[in-house]
């Protein structure tokens, strides 16, 4: 509380000598009051009126000084306390912050040591909440956070301590008679609660939640350790996706340490250019010629041996190393591709790279430096990554197309993509996921493959079948309409030095066709003829797919697929 002085002059009966200055409503010290009285410079007053007026003013100022002194002292005490509360609580929701939550959790643990109850700690992280905040504004995110906090207070048991340690999440602690069972129930309840849409004015906020849980038996752990365990379980749950929950296990610490060590090793491998590339050929299902190669990253980790891309690529994405790794792969692939100017080069790109505003400029700089033709380059992005795509990815794809780069949707069929998804991003090509290729050999499996190909062809998008591991799969994929094939049956990934030889072998096999079982030079067998049983494919009458894909002779429909078929339709195995 602050006090100010103000003065007002008045005249009237008893003030015949002139206006009198009266200081009031302001708490000041006695010394200030005396100074004011001396500085007033009042003219000599009459004995009847002036002395009482001056006495009243002095008494009033002294009274205010006595009142103001304790108020000032109280304000000095309250100010640091208010600062401490602001520092220990979340300014948006008013919930305890990390420090205050830990103190309250310690009190709960002390009670559990006496009662023998379990203590259940849950760490909740809201997925896609930051994206909504960026799109809708900080005020909307703050309002949503307050709404979720208010809902948690109603949803959780009364003895629950709810905190917001920072970021887009909450942390909760409560005593429990059966920690594991209660934790499973609470995790399901919270996941359902956060999965609901939140209406804020005219905006609808969609979020999800990942939940990490840990149980402390009879208060045996410290508060900081329980918070760490819940956080570790949360990181494990977030790898599965929104709506996931996981209890803390000791192995999670080991996995976390291994992931941190891998991040450090991967960082040095990128710096020292220890990431190498193999190339897997992609062939035409009509001519059998190599039309392109896909660059596949390889890492020979020191003291650990070769690392699979499906292991170290997610580590690079989580740590942010994917940007440096992606540019390294691009540069090396473009350098190698100059040896084979007649074919395309496909490179896998993470959706995280697409979200980098400077990605297109970086790619253009590499094109210019290496004198690479962008029209030979194909960027492949996994289906699951584009499911969580934003408008920024669409804009990035348009900018890449403007310089000649094509974009392929990889692993089509592994996620929840559909016709609207394909239309939104306008892909140049689609790669069928190998799970559909594997199913094609099962009862009715080829119908699912055919439907996926027909979906792409309805948008005039060509289709590549990857994961071809047998001659039968190659034939079915070709008859269903795939114009390109890729897989171990066609050719295994090879080093850059061997690509030119594969291209030459494929061209030579087209010029000098051989029958089944015959060798072409010292290369593996090149198959061209075999007996195939009738294939029951529901081919529409208005679709000329198989007729266009056939070689010499005519395949006008499923009734003509028995007997001898020229397997120029099915590229031979070349490695």
Overall geometry: elongated
Average pLDDT score: 76
Distance between the termini: 85 Å
Instruction: Tell me the number of strands.
Output: 21
Q: Which blocks of ≥5 consecutive residues have pLDDT under 50?
A: 1-26, 45-49, 130-135, 513-575
- Portion in strands: 15-25%
Kindly describe this structure.
There is one protein chain. This protein is an alpha/beta fold. It is built from 20 helices and 21 strands. Strands 10-11-13-14-15-16-17-18 form an 8-stranded mixed barrel, surrounded by 6 helices. A 5-stranded mixed beta sheet has the order 4-5-3-8-9, with helices on both faces. A two-stranded antiparallel sheet has the order 1-2. The radius of gyration is 38 Å and the shape is elongated. The N and C termini lie far apart (85 Å).
Question: Which secondary structure elements does this structure contain, and how are they paired or packed?
Answer:
Elements: E1 6-10, E2 20-24, H1 30-39, H2 50-88, H3 98-115, E3 118-127, H4 129-136, H5 138-155, E4 161-163, E5 169-176, H6 179-195, E6 198-200, E7 203-205, E8 208-216, H7 223-238, E9 245-247, H8 250-271, E10 275-284, E11 290-301, E12 305-307, H9 309-319, H10 322-337, E13 344-348, H11 351-354, H12 359-370, E14 377-382, H13 383-387, H14 391-402, E15 406-412, H15 419-425, E16 429-432, H16 434-439, H17 445-457, E17 463-465, H18 471-479, E18 484-485, E19 494-495, H19 496-511, E20 529-532, H20 545-549, E21 563-566
Parallel strand pairs: 8-9, 11-13, 13-14, 14-15, 15-16, 16-17, 17-18
Antiparallel strand pairs: 1-2, 3-5, 3-8, 4-5, 6-7, 10-11, 10-18, 10-19, 11-12, 20-21
């Amino acid at each position: 509380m602050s006090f100010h002085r103000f003065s007002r002059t008045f005249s009237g009966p008893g003030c015949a000598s002139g206006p009198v200055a009266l200081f009031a409503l302001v708490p000041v010290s006695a010394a200030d009051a005396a100074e004011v009285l001396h500085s007033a410079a009042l003219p000599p007053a009459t004995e009847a009126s002036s002395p009482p007026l001056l006495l009243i003013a002095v008494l009033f100022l002294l009274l205010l000084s006595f009142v103001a002194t304790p108020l000032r002292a109280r304000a000095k005490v309250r100010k640091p306390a208010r600062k401490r509360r602001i520092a220990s609580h979340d300014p948006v929701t008013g919930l305890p912050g990390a420090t205050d939550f830990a103190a309250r959790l310690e009190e709960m643990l002390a009670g559990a040591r006496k009662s023998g109850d379990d203590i259940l700690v849950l760490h909740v992280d809201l997925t896609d909440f930051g994206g909504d905040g960026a799109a809708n504004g900080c005020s909307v995110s703050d309002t949503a956070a307050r709404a979720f906090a208010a809902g948690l207070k109603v949803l959780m048991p009364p003895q629950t301590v709810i905190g917001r340690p920072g970021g887009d999440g909450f942390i909760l602690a409560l005593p429990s008679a059966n920690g594991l069972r209660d934790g499973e129930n609470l995790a399901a309840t919270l996941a359902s609660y956060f999965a609901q849409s939140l209406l804020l004015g005219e905006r609808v906020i969609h979020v999800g939640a990942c939940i990490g849980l840990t149980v402390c038996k009879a208060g045996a752990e410290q508060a900081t350790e329980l918070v760490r365990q819940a956080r570790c379980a949360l990181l494990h749950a977030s790898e599965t996706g929104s709506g996931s929950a996981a209890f803390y296990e000791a192995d999670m610490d080991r996995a976390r340490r291994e992931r941190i060590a891998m991040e450090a090793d991967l960082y040095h491998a990128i710096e020292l250019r220890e990431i190498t590339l193999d190339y897997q050929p992609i062939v035409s299902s009509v001519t059998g010629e190599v039309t392109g190669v896909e660059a596949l990253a390889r890492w020979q980790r020191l003291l650990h041996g070769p690392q699979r891309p499906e292991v170290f690529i997610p580590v690079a994405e989580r740590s942010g190393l994917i940007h440096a790794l992606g540019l390294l792969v691009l540069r090396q692939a473009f350098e190698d591709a100059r040896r084979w100017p007649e074919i395309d080069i496909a490179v896998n790109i993470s959706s995280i790279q697409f979200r980098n505003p400077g990605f297109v400029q970086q790619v253009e700089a590499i094109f210019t430096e290496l004198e690479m033709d962008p029209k030979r380059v194909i960027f492949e992005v996994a289906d699951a990554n584009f499911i969580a795509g934003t408008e920024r990815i669409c804009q990035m794809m348009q900018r890449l197309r403007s310089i000649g780069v094509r974009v392929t949707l990889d692993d089509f069929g592994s996620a929840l993509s559909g016709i609207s998804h394909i239309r939104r991003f306008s892909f140049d090509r689609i790669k069928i996921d190998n799970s559909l290729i594997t199913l094609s050999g099962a009862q009715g499996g080829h119908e699912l493959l055919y439907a996926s190909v027909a979906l792409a062809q309805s948008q005039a998008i060509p289709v590549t079948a990857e994961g071809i591991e047998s001659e039968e799969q190659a034939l079915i994929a070709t008859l269903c309409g795939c114009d390109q094939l890729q897989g171990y049956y066609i050719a295994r990934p090879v080093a850059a030095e061997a690509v030119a030889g594969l291209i030459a072998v494929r061209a030579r096999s087209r010029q000098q066709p051989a029958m089944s079982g015959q060798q072409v030079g010292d290369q593996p067998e090149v198959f061209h003829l075999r007996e195939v049983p009738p294939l029951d494919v529901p081919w529409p009458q208005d679709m000329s797919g198989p007729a266009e894909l056939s070689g010499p002779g005519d395949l006008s429909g499923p009734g003509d697929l028995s007997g001898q078929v020229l397997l120029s339709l099915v590229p031979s195995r070349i490695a």
